[in-house]
Amino acid sequence: MILLSGKTLEQGSQFSLEPVEVITATIDLEEIRSYRSSISRNVQAAQQADSTRVEWDIRLSQKELHILDPMTEIWMGTSVYLWQYLVRTSSPGFFLSLSGGLDSSTVALFVYGMPKVVLKSIEAGSKTTLADLRRVTGMDTLVPKTPEEIVGLFANHMLYLYHQAVQASMAIINEALHFTLKYAVEGGTRSENLALQNIQARSRITTQYMLAQLVTTASQSPRAGSPLLGLASGNVDENLRGYYTKYDASSGDLAPLGSISKNNAKLFQSWAMKAWDLPILEELLTATPSAEPLPLPAGVQDDESESEMGLMYTELSTFGILRKMAEKVMHFFRNYAINRHNATITTPSVHMSAYNPDDNRHDLRPFLYNVNWPFQFNKIRAHAEHLQNMMSK
């Protein structure tokens, strides 16, 4: 962006796939001198000799400032982020475990949106983007005509059940501890119930990396032998709350959703449904969220609501920005302190929010706290009691 005396003369692309972008603008040196002379401490600037003027019938700058709307920013930002990872690691594509929920489907949408930005760059004449696309796909003569053509090069859907991996883990526990795990609905403890769900979550990530390593070899693609990049699907609300399992779907090589809240993920899906004509997204937006599968006797799952976390996603988004209220605040920060250490292995994410808890990169706060927060919680209780007394008068 080029600014002159508080005015915008030229603005570069907010998001671009080009390694370097150059912008130009016409600058009136007399205007600079006049502006400086209006400030008392820079009166000397007015005493300098005039510059020679050359009239040229051409305009090099624009005056209007163009700012993208938030949903377009999410689309463009994640697209550039995914493309840069793909190109700079020379990877042939991405691998994503789709659970059918909002988070993983939103990440899939980000990948779906990336080729639109890539094709737009190619159509604008970028030889660099076309060369990069040919290199990562291994197709030296590729000239894509539609975004769907690019998506087709990366899309390879597989359906697999990892119950055998889960059963193998349970067999190891049985042999090592002489103990059989049970779900809560089967008479097991809360610890057993959580352990069984974590086994499922971690079995998925190990299976994902194994398949990502071998899929190009098995499919005999032009880049056979090259591993795919694993995409994590954790969102910023769960990272703040600590509501995730280490080395599960929240882990991977990169996390496109890692600094985006659940509410913004829903808003993005609503935007994409209309902007990209994807009516199937209505099913995802209205589906009941759940964490790991429980046995059928458990009934309809509502794992990710207040019954499990003690906080709604709308409240988590509010905490991410404001982090205020009383009992809810103490509940949030107690869990935050307990689970903050998990953030030390958080998968790198695109930096899309000011409250991104991406450890060691954007969030430099400690990862070990006194979970009872005695000074802070006593202040909160005292203030809440004071407000209650004022309201009762």
UniProtKB/TrEMBL annotation:
One Pfam family for this entry, by name?
A: NAD_synthase
Which Gene3D superfamilies does this UniProt record tie to the protein?
A: Carbon-nitrogen hydrolase (3.60.110.10), HUPs (3.40.50.620)
Keyword check for NAD, yes or no: yes
What sections of the sequence does the record tag as coiled-coil?
Answer: none
Q: Which residues form the NAD/GMP synthase domain?
A: 81-319
Keyword tags = ATP-binding, Ligase, NAD, Nucleotide-binding
Looking up InterPro entries in the UniProt record yields: C-N_Hydrolase_sf (IPR036526), NAD/GMP_synthase (IPR022310), NAD_synthase (IPR003694), Rossmann-like_a/b/a_fold (IPR014729)
Q: Does the keyword Nucleotide-binding apply?
A: yes
Q: Where is the signal peptide?
A: none
Q: Which PANTHER family match?
A: GLUTAMINE-DEPENDENT NAD(+) SYNTHETASE, NH 3 /GLUTAMINE-DEPENDENT NAD + SYNTHETASE
Q: What is the protein's given name?
A: NAD/GMP synthase domain-containing protein
The protein's organism comes out as Apiospora saccharicola
